[in-house]
Amino acid sequence: CSSSYNCNCPVTVTRRYQTTLGVVLFWEFPSSPVDWFLITVSSFSREDGHVTGVRRIRLRGVVRAFHFTGLKRGERYEIEVIAVTGQVKSSPTVVIVDKM
Questions:
Q1: 51 neighbors 44 (Cβ within 8 angstroms)
Q2: What predicted TM-score, i.e. pTM, was given to this entire model?
């Protein structure tokens, strides 16, 4: 994908590591400027796979890392990151986190 202003390519997660209470994600996005990032954290029951909760977080475009806390043991999480510039949204990037 080119680095044009209206680039619709996904955010690239460059690094991730788990902490006691959550996970830290670092990302890059080739298009500049970015107005904000929309992050959706969905939790799923390990037993039946049903959604047990959804949190949405909006971060200004200069942010390139975030520490997600409050992740419970025994649940699976999908963290979706989307870059938004004006009315243009990037393709979603999804990271799966299993808290054991």
A1: yes
A2: 0.81
